[in-house]
Amino acid sequence: MLTQLSNQCRQDILKMINKAKAGHPGGSLSCIDILTYLYTKEIKLTKENVSSINRDRLVLSKGHAAPALYAILHNIGIIDSYETFRQINSDLQGHPNMNDTPGVDMSTGSLGQGISCAVGMAIGNKILENGHKVYALLGDGECEEGQVYEALMAASHYQLNNLIAILDYNGLQIDGAIGDVMNPAPFKDKFIAFGWTVIEINGHDFQEIKDAVQLAKTSEKPTMIIAHTVKGKGVSFMENKAGWHGKAPSDEELEKALKELQGGCNYE
Amino acid sequence: MSNMATREAYGLALARIVKENDDVVVLDADLSPATKTCYAKEARPDRFINAGIAESNMVGMAAGMAASHMKPFASSFAMFLAGRAFEQIRNSIAYPHLNVKLCATHAGITVGEDGATHQCNEDLALMRALPGMTVLQPCDAVETREMLNYLVNYNHPCYVRMSRLGVDSIYDENYKFELGKISTIIQGKSIAFIASGIMVSEALIAIEQLNQEGIYPSLYNVHTIKPIDQDKINSIAKSYDYVMTLEEHNVIGGLFSAVVEALKIPKIIYPIGIKDTFGESGTPEALMKKYEIHYTNIIDYTKEIMGHE
Which DSSP letter does residue A105 get? Predict the structure, then answer.
């Protein structure tokens, strides 16, 4: 069920970016399994609760993965069409804007900022005593931004056990491997040192994602789920290629990718 | 005539507001005794969030709180709020148009002895350039209080610029703050002073002395730098032979720029302000003289442009 849904989202991500002739396929494909799980099993977003804050919310701190967010929002019936992605007069901006798109809980795109907003939302939930969780999805390259660590420090200082962050650890950024560009690793030791509970998982395994989120809910501290992922996951010629960070597939490449996804090969 | 810094009036007003409004949250970045949010902290410790020395994260947290339907008031020095956290203000607050009140103190050169690193003469330019950002600067304690009372139920992003230095009170207790309206303080003739912030009281001192020499300037207070009162600016431009702007900010991008941008008719506007330079250490008064925004400079410049010797 989740596998089918995320496979459909993968196809939509690629169609969306192909149509727009711009966008970020690599990091969208690496985080779509996580988003698929969260939006269907935890946040349980519906047309009825979409504009309410009385539900769990998610901040896509790595805002360039907007196609992944739009794909899942489309597949759970929140947004009708993604045809206009990145085009003039569209409600689907290149990076998500909360005032344009239903289901977008925070405007993001400038890296390092979303996690701070998630911390503020979690503090807000504490003040409101509403018991709702805030999820934040971070990129690994994003963790080169110093603001991330200001936010981590604040989350543990204010004991935000209602904040669950997920690191999409796909190992690549625009200029290459994160270890070559500016190594933010080791992540686990850093997050523990900042006072977070840390869980490491395979970010493409729904059972592991589920178990980690359930465990995070019992933590007294904010939790960081380090999700080991593959950039470009599900499309053989995109996997583990930094070049597919921000490049649109051509019509031929799209066709090839869709064939792979529809055949279910390379990804179960 | 009582003397109080706008930051002090801010702290006192905010302490009362946070006590009376459950949805107000106060944020600071380890400067609460200076920004005076320490009073709010004392009044409602459960609504005070210290971000530590991490302004970028403070701005982001304030945005998140606004997204949780809180009413955050976030404070630091103008330099570190509008300056350091500019891009966070732009992308996390202004772009999603979130209800955050950015209340900056220690603006301008009258920060004094701390020197150029702490003297922000560029914040109005930065904040004015942000779409949807309301930019305010009170001139005295009463106006600060009334402005704050108004802002509690004004659900838009807003930047309030305040000073370290004490200023004599301009308004009496009956003063009513009207957002976006230039306030007339003195009705004179032939020359108009359009001032903001601490330059309003500086202008008053200059006017007292100019009166003795037979010059009777009008004095207008621009508490709302954005959206600027365009109608009033144009009616002032039409009604006076000479128009001068007075600001404790770089003449690039601040009040002078805002007034010039608002003109619909050709008119020379004479600026008093910081002439595109950095400040330095010194007493506020010595700095105001050196950087030519002191009342004596206002007097000299007025006589110069009016041709009085």
Answer: -
* Burial bucket for residue A158 (CB in 10 Å: 0-12, 13-18, 19+): middle
Inter-chain touch A127–B70, beta carbons under 8 Å: yes
Q: Quickly count: other Cβ atoms within 10 Å of residue A188's Cβ.
A: 15
Its pTM stands at: 0.95
Mean pLDDT, chain B cut into blocks of 10 residues (309 residues total): 91 98 98 98 98 98 98 98 98 98 98 96 98 98 98 98 94 97 98 98 98 98 98 98 98 98 98 98 98 98 90
ipTM: 0.93
Nearest-Cα distance to chain A for B102, in Å, is 15
The answer to whether A157 contacts B91, with C-beta atoms less than 8 Å apart, is: no
What's the CATH number of domain B3-168, 3.40.309.10, 3.10.20.280, 3.40.50.970, 3.40.50.300?
A: 3.40.50.970
Between A and B, how many CB-CB pairs are < 8 A?
113
Catalytic residue check, B55: yes
CATH of domain A2-263: 3.40.50.970
Interface contact flag, A123 B61, Cβ < 8 Å: yes
Domain B183-303 belongs to what topology?
Answer: Rossmann fold (3.40.50)
Q: Coil, strand or helix: which one is B238?
A: helix
Give the integer Cα–Cα distance in Å for B53 and B32: 11
Token duo for residue B264: 């619909």
Distances from the Cα of B24 to the Cαs of A23, B74, B238, in angstroms?
39, 11, 43
Strand partners, B135: B159, B226
